[in-house]
Design a protein that fits this description.
CATH topology of the largest domain: PH-domain like
Oligomer: single chain
Distance between the termini: 31 Å
Strand order of the largest sheet: 1-2-3-4
Order of helices and strands: EHHEEEEEEEH
Structural class: alpha+beta
Number of helices: 3
Length: about 160
Amino acid sequence: MNELYAEAGVKRKETAGTYAIRILLIFAAVLLFIISLSNQIMLFVAAIVIVGIFYFFPRLSLEYEYVYCDGQLDFDKIMGKSKRKNALKIDFEQVEVMAPQGSHALDSYNHIKCDVKDFSSGNKETTPYVIIYRQGEKNLKILFEPNEKMLNCIKMKNPRKLVQY
């Protein structure tokens, strides 16, 4: 019972788009509330918009958690520090290569059409790792930021698939 287990997590960087959406939602709520003071029907519309804001506002705060357990890597999305959703589960048997973004080990995969799944923080100061994953006929390019323990576990289980330079 010698399982390799590691977990890591990152908080998604706030973008200008998420700030703009938050400001627009607050502005819409205030505007509809002011309009609703003069009209009863608009009070109902304002209440619906405010409920929508309480629903969408926490979802703009994203975190990603990665769990590696014996050759399997799970990507979970945490919205508003409360709601967890499993975003992707991969098996390292179908992984072609895992390397830091910009590594020459990924050059031979640049011409392949891949769907991109970004589970990184979006921070420019960090270098995410890229996994090229073959899922049947479809190829995935997965971006994420593992910690040292996770890299060591992956290297112990799948040493030929991990490139660290």
